[in-house]
User: Which sequence fits this backbone?
């Protein structure tokens, strides 16, 4: 079994790490791939995205290599990066089950993803909480595995806003990447 956790990771933060750790412990995969998006289709107009190599490096400093592999596949696929392309590539390469780790916010908008019905035929969704109102989450009607994990009230957007306001981001991202993130944003 392969778990993939994709995202812009702009920057990767401690919430990403905590969720990945919970998923790893719950699923016990053969491989757990962290896949930074090269060109996220829902953020094509966003000029506030750090370059791909920088986000890869930040992920390497956030997710320990003993459990997680930072996977650079999306730079090689057609642009913009669609999850379905990545999943099809991985299925062909590894011939294994793919579990896709997403947040509740992504589950709610999943029907807007590129060829989402086809994607659902190729993955098992594993969904972590993003909201405190669990009822909304449990009643959503796309088949998924519920990951019982804490609600992390932190986001990359919030981190970038704090930087613009000259507020601390310590404790929100790995200490080893704080200075580089501050220089980037």
Assistant:
């Amino acid at each position: 079994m392969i778990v993939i956790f994709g995202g812009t990771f702009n920057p990767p933060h401690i919430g990403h790490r905590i969720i990945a750790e919970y998923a790893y412990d719950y699923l016990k995969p053969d491989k757990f791939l962290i896949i930074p998006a090269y060109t996220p289709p829902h953020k094509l107009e966003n000029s506030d995205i750090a370059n791909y190599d920088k986000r890869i490096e930040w992920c390497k400093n956030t997710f320990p290599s003993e459990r997680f592999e930072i996977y650079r596949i999306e730079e090689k696929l057609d642009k913009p990066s669609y999850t379905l392309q990545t999943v099809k590539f991985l299925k062909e390469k590894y011939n294994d089950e793919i579990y896709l780790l997403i947040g509740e916010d992504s589950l709610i908008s999943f029907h807007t993803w590129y060829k989402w019905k086809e994607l659902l035929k190729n993955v098992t969704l594993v969904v972590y909480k993003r909201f405190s109102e669990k009822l909304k989450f449990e009643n959503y009607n796309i088949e998924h595995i519920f990951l019982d994990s804490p609600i992390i009230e932190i986001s990359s957007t919030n981190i970038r806003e704090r930087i613009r306001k000259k507020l601390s981001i310590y404790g929100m991202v790995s200490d080893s990447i704080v200075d580089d993130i501050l220089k980037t944003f």
Strands lie at 2-7, 31-36, 69-70, 98-103, 124-128, 145-147.
